[in-house]
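Morning F.,

Quick status update on the modeling queue. The single chain you submitted on Monday has been processed. Sequence for confirmation:
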Amino acid sequence: MGKHESAHIVWDWNGTLFHDNDAIIGATNAASAELGLAPITLEQYRALYCVPVPKFYERLMGRLPTDAEWEAMDEIFHRYYAEHRALCGLTDGAAELLAGWRSAGGSQSLLSMYVHEELVPLVRGFGIEPHFVRVEGRVGPSGGSKAEHMVRHLRSLGEVRPGRTVVIGDAADDAVAARAVGAQAVLYTGGSHGRASLEEVGVPVVDSLAEAVEEAQRLVA
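Structure tokens below.
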């Protein structure tokens, strides 16, 4: 069996390995206040969130934001988030799961829609970077789907086969990205989507990262 014949996991970051719900909700409400919108709760966010992100704001506003509104909201969101992410940490058990998967001979990488130059030092600061064969964040404008990034990500991994790859994330878009490359997906309820909306996607849904890893092993068995 070749080096990458066991499952390869592509991890999501925000809302999956990185438990940043408080910072996300605060940043969303700060951005929404730019247009005079009322603040929302985590439960409301999970019920409404979708990609591309301007569609999420359409659900909040009743219309799509203009380009100028989107640029202003996006700038406010990222400024607020950058200030408050320091109060957030890894999801419980994440570091141990990453270390365990690596020590068992499994490969794993990280693909996030968080901006690359800010993602890498953040991951490095938690001491988990060595567990990944590649850490990749978004390069280019925000707000789009992860699918096109996933295509490039898997291509860059060389020997990793899509049929032996499982994407673990917290959003329906993670499953869309997995399908774009012929990979499997497992969705975690601890982040941006509630269980009900995730179950509509048609892939396994779990309540912990430990369950996600177990499901990934089952999917490629």
